[in-house]
Amino acid sequence: MKIAILDDYQNVARDLAEWHQLPNGSALTVFDRPIPADEVAAALEPYDVLVIMRERTPFPASLIDRLPNLRLLVTTGQRNNAIDLAACQARGIPVCGTRMVGTPTAELTWGLILALVKRIPAEERALREGRWQTGLTQGLAGKRLGLVGLGKLGTQVAAVGRAFGMEVAAWSPNLTDERAAAAGAARLDKRELFATSDIVSVHLVLSDRTRGVVGAEEFAAMKPTALFVNTSRAGLVDETALLAALHEHCIAGAGIDVYPVEPLPAGSPWLDAPNTVLTPHLGYVTRENCEVFYRDALEDILAWRAGNPVRVLGA
C-alpha cells in the first residue's frame, strides 16, 4: 500500500501520528510543498491512499480520472468543497474525513481585528526602525461589529465582541431574529449591516448560494472608516471589488486570511494592497488540530483496510 500525505507545509505529519501502525510493507511519502497543478496527476499516480489537507490541492473529476491506483481519499476536516465526491463515488473510492478541535478560526479573526485597530504590524515595524508612536490606534467599546454569518464561528466572534463592549449585529440569508438574539446580536438587513458597522467580519459556508455574497455594492455602502475581515473562504467575496475598495480608500483597511489562489503567487495584487493585515490561511492551522487531523487520518486508513471505513463523507 502506497500512501501520500499532501501539502504538509509545516512538515509535521510524520511526528503527529503513529504511522508505524500501518500494515507491513506500506510506504509513506510526505509532500511538504504544493505540487504544481500541471504535475499533480503524474506525481500522485502511483498512490493507493491520499491524505489531503483541506482544500489546498483540489480534486476535481478530471484529476480523479487520472489516478487509476487511488482507492482511498482522506481529507482533514468534515467538509471539502474541492473534492468531486460524485466522481469518487462513481469510482468506488471512499472519501473519509477527520474531526477538528476548538474554534481557532474565531481566534484568528480577533487576531486580525486587533492587529488592524491597534496598528500592531505598523507600529512594531516603526519601533524596530527607531520611530515611536506613529499614529493613533482605535478602541472597540461602543463600536458596531457586523457579522456576515452567525453559525458556530460567528457566534464565537460575537461573544468576544460583546466582551469588548461592542454592539453586535448580524446578517445571513436564513438568520432569524430569535437566532440572532440567542447569540447576543441584532439582526439587520444586509445593506444596513454594511452601512452601519465599524468592523464587518465574514463567517459563512461557501456554497453556490453564498459565492460572491460580498461585492462592490456592499463595499460601497461601508463607512470610509470601517474595516473588513475575511477568515472564511475567498469565494464569498468579490476579490476585485475588495481590492478596489482598499486602493480607492472606500474602506479603512482589511484583514485577510483566505485567497482565490493559495499559496499567494509572486506578483499577487494582495502583496501591494494598502492598509491590510495578511495571513497565509492560518485559521485552522493549530498544533491541536493537526494532531487530531493526522491521528484520525491514520485511523481512517486502518479502518478502511479492515473493511469498515469511518467518517465517510457523503455517506
From TrEMBL:
Domain D-isomer specific 2-hydroxyacid dehydrogenase NAD-binding: 111-283
Family stated for the protein in its record: Belongs to the D-isomer specific 2-hydroxyacid dehydrogenase family.
InterPro entries according to UniProt: D-2-hydroxyacid_DH, D-isomer_2_OHA_DH_cat_dom, D-isomer_DH_NAD-bd, NAD(P)-bd_dom_sf
Listed name of the protein: Phosphoglycerate dehydrogenase-like enzyme
Gene3D superfamilies attached to this UniProt entry: NAD(P)-binding Rossmann-like Domain (3.40.50.720)
Pfam families with a match to the protein in the record: 2-Hacid_dh, 2-Hacid_dh_C
Residues annotated as domain D-isomer specific 2-hydroxyacid dehydrogenase catalytic: 16-310
Annotated source species: Azospirillum rugosum
Keywords: NAD, Oxidoreductase
